[in-house]
Amino acid sequence: xxxxxxxxxxxxxxxxxxxxxxxxxxxxxxxxxxxxxxxxxxxxxxxxxxxxxxxxxxxxxxxxxxxxxxxxxxxxx
Length: 77
What we know:
Elements: H1 6-22, H2 25-44, H3 48-59
């Protein structure tokens, strides 16, 4: 059985990857570093089959990641 939050974890991981490209390494680490480590470890605990199934759910539009507005804004530092 697929963990119900795996699609959201994958979507959040994708979001963090995009943030990492836009923010300086220092700022990304300060704001999102621990979250990135936690999400990566949670995903690594899942099987390839579970991840593939979750990616299918995402592709089919069956999973979404509602983020607060603050997660969409770049921060000045």
